[in-house]
Structure prediction request, 105 residues.
Amino acid sequence: MAAKIKKGDRVVILSGKDKGKHGEVTQALPQEGKVIVSGINIITRHRKPSQANPQGGLDRMEAPIAASKVAIEDPKTGKATRVRFDVRDGKKVRIAVKSGETING
Prediction:
């Protein structure tokens, strides 16, 4: 199946604690059905002091979020949209359903 969400896409979060926020996909994990979005689903890890990190402390990082909880941001309106595929100039391209605009990538 073709990838509807790819690295570099602008997405809107549909549900959860970050609902309504926008971000960019930094990593797609298609085998797991998850994506990592910049600034979304931030988790905190408590790190013990070690030789590599003598101070220890709190590490904040982005955790994967289910791909079903994000939607592509429409390039024209900035709202969530579904994606369909079409062949234009002999190439398969992704198209935003709401506006008909081509999605880069």
